[in-house]
Amino acid sequence: MLAKRIIPCLDIKNGKTVKGINFEGIKEIGDPVEMGRKYAEEGADELVYLDISATQEGRSTFKELVSRIAENINIPFTVGGGISSVVDAGNLLKAGADKITINSSAVRNPQLINDIAGKYGRQFIVVAIDAKLINGKWCVMTHGGNQPTEKELFSWAVEAYERGAGEILFTSMNHDGTKQGYACDEYRKLSSLVPIPIIASGGAGTVQHIADVLQEGCADAALAASIFHYNEIPIPILKEELKKHDIITRTIKY
């Protein structure tokens, strides 16, 4: 059995780590490089950095920040936000990112998935999907969760895989920041539809929530922010607790 991954997510705005609830009420909580280094030392398996205002503000993710992250941490990290071309993706790879994630730009131009995967390989590209349950349908949202689209979560995930996505990072906007648990049924369905890793995001509040999405939800990785940012569940303790649920994770650090 492949080890499950625990992934702290750092949302970035104006160069600072921020957090909100349901993508709203954003406030600054720390320096992204220092926080990333701390998580790496504690035993995080990977990190995800999302520049949440890049698409709205029409600019590219700061390469300088990516370079500083690469210089200061020794675990894989993924970077997203404002990536709209193969050149953008390549620049981030050169700056030190292990993977890139695209969201709004992929919805706008699905061929971008093919192009990046064709240039750098499937393993380099994560397609992030923000979706909101509206009238019984999981509607794909873009621009930091502000703009609804005509795309539906499951069909879009399948298309993204077929175009070359190496992983799917699905965030339920209905669960994000609420600490009430993940959308386990949706993750289980996604894992049955595509043969690539599914990263669960949105709703972690307890160890049980994470255990549920990794077992019942069949997710390959659990991504969370608040519980790590506010030290509610330290990563070493989380991993020890997950062992009691017979969930295998990567090496624990103390």
What does this protein structure show overall?
The protein has helices at residues 32-42, 54-57, 63-72, 86-95, 104-108, 111-120, 153-163, 184-193, 207-215, 226-229, 235-244, and strands at residues 5-13, 16-21, 24-30, 47-51, 77-80, 99-102, 125-134, 137-142, 147-152, 167-172, 198-201, 221-224. The chain has an 8-stranded parallel β-barrel with strand order 1-4-5-6-7-10-11-12, surrounded by 6 helices. It has 11 helices and 12 strands. The model has no long low-confidence stretch (mean pLDDT 90). The longest helix has 11 residues, at 32-42.
Give the gist of this structure.
By secondary structure, this protein is α/β, with parallel strands linked by helices.
Structural class: alpha/beta
Strand order of the largest sheet: 1-4-5-6-7-10-11-12
Distance, first to last CA: 24 Å
| Mean pLDDT score | 90
How many domains make up the 3D coordinates?
1
Q: Which percent range fits the helix content?
A: 25-40%
Q: Determine the CATH topology.
A: TIM Barrel
CATH architect. name: Alpha-Beta Barrel
Share in β-strands: 25-35%
Query: What is the name of the CATH class?
Result: Alpha Beta
Number of strands: 12
List the keywords.
254 residues; alpha/beta; TIM Barrel; 11 helices; 12 strands; 37% helix; 28% strand; globular
SSE topology sketch:
Blueprint (H helix, E strand, L loop, with lengths): L4 E9 L2 E6 L2 E7 L1 H11 L4 E5 L2 H4 L5 H10 L4 E4 L5 H10 L3 E4 L1 H5 L2 H10 L4 E10 L2 E6 L4 E6 H11 L3 E6 L11 H10 L4 E4 L5 H9 L5 E4 L1 H4 L5 H10 L10
Parallel strand pairs: 1-4, 1-12, 4-5, 5-6, 6-7, 7-10, 10-11, 11-12
Antiparallel strand pairs: 1-2, 2-3, 7-8, 8-9
Helix pairs in contact: 1-3
